[in-house]
Design goal:
With 317 residues, the chain is an alpha/beta fold. It has helices at 41-55, 91-99, 108-119, 175-178, 181-192, 201-209, 213-237, 252-267, 292-302, and strands at residues 3-9, 13-20, 25-32, 62-66, 70-71, 76-77, 103-107, 128-133, 137-143, 146-148, 241-245, 283-285. It has a 5-stranded mixed beta sheet, sandwiched between helices. The chain has a 5-stranded mixed beta sheet with strand order 10-9-8-11-12, with helices on both faces.
């Protein structure tokens, strides 16, 4: 059985796991991600070095999930989210040369979609999508049984969708803000009259599950906004199923409220007076939570043809 080292690079921590080809996690841990304000690409690579050194003689390759718009063929990062020091770098090729073994790099939202398509909630579907609610809104799209990346590898970058045409210069006018963690906090705070910065997902759902009416009203406004964008996504792509992921997707109350919001959207579509049939999105939960990006990154690695990239791997010494 072959083993692989898989990284999930986040802004605060970089998780890693030793995994076999069946996606079983044999070992798992995390290391702090160097701060992009003060550190450099070489600082980040040094963090990876410390992990790779532990497993160098046990692995056949390295798979990486990371934020940003990137060319999955060679790991070139156009943008890199909170890992800004990696922008403009061909990370996959550089690390392949550094370690002397194949290295693959894929966008984190797309990794989540691949994980669900391989072994989770999208398994067996032809057309589906994953919507990951986190700091922003990430995700991936499966079309005709394959991950759809688009001409510039940016398909599924939901955070960039403008939701307020009258104020396109405002950050809060984009899906990544209104439906991410900060957006949820701001909407709830509007109903409670408190500073939004005191809220995080744990506090919001703790209060919501206790029946706090103001927090529940904020949650409903949040899911109403989210439901509209999910409706739009389904109209664009006519999907079999849409899986909701991210930390707050563990909360049954989120799914309950989101389904109610979506039902309300569908009930009130005025176009039904002209065309009675309007396709309704089918929602489900993502099966994988914190491990989704690791599993999807491994799937991407195992389905990647390294020989087509003309990368020369030096012998390990």
């Amino acid at each position: 059985m072959k083993n692989y080292l898989v990284f999930d690079a986040g802004g605060t921590f970089t998780k890693y796991a030793l995994m076999d080809e069946n996606a079983e996690i044999l070992e798992k841990d995390k290391v702090p991600t160097p701060d992009y304000h003060t550190k450099t690409k070489e600082d980040y690579y040094a963090v990876l070095d410390s992990v790779v050194e532990k497993y160098r003689n046990r692995i056949e390759g390295i798979a990486i999930s990371m934020p940003g718009m990137l060319d999955n063929r060679n790991g070139y990062c156009v943008t890199a989210g909170y890992l800004a020091y990696l922008a403009g770098s061909t990370v996959g090729t550089e690390l392949s040369q550094r370690y002397g073994i194949p290295v693959s790099v894929e966008n984190d939202g797309k990794c989540a979609a691949l994980a669900e398509f391989w072994r989770g909630s999208l398994k067996g579907c032809t057309n589906g999508a994953v919507v990951v609610i986190g700091t922003g809104v990430a995700g991936g799209i499966i079309l005709n049984g394959k991950l759809f990346r688009g001409n510039h590898f940016t398909a599924g970058e939901y955070s960039y969708v403008c939701t307020e045409a009258k104020e396109p210069a405002e950050m809060d006018s984009y899906w990544g803000m209104i439906s991410g963690a900060e957006g949820l906090a701001k909407i709830v705070a509007k109903h409670t009259g408190e500073d939004w910065k005191i809220y995080d997902g744990l506090k919001i759902f703790g209060l919501a599950n206790e029946g706090d009416e103001k927090v529940l009203a904020g949650l409903r406004e949040f899911t109403d906004r989210l439901a509209v964008q999910i409706y739009n996504l389904n109209i664009y792509l006519d999907l079999d199923i849409i899986a909701i992921g991210g930390g707050i997707s563990r909360q049954p109350l989120l799914h309950e409220y989101l389904q109610k919001s979506l039902d309300e959207v569908m009930k009130n579509i005025p176009l039904r007076k002209i065309t009675p049939y309007v396709p309704e999105p089918k929602l489900t939960k993502c099966q994988f939570y914190n491990d989704a990006n690791l599993i999807g990154a491994l799937y991407h690695f195992m389905n990647k043809s390294f020989c087509s990239e003309n990368i020369q791997f030096p012998k390990q010494g």
